[in-house]
Here is the input.
Amino acid sequence: FTGELVGVLHKRIAEVWLSVANASMSGWIKCITLGATIPYDRRKKGAESRPPKQLELN
Here is the structure.
C-alpha cells in the first residue's frame, strides 16, 4: 500500500462509518446505554438480594 492509497481508504471508511452512525445514532445510543446499565443493575440487585443463586449460576 502507498501512503496515498491508505489515506483514501481511511477517508472512505470514515465517511461510510459517519453516514451509518448518523443514520442510526439514536438507536446505537439506546443500545449502548441499555446494554451498559440494565445488566449492571440486574447483577447489582441480584447480588444484593440473592447471593446463593448468583453463586450457583456462576
User: Anything to note?
Assistant: The chain has two helices and no strands. The two ends are 48 Å apart (CA to CA). The CA atoms of residues 19 and 50 lie 45 Å apart.
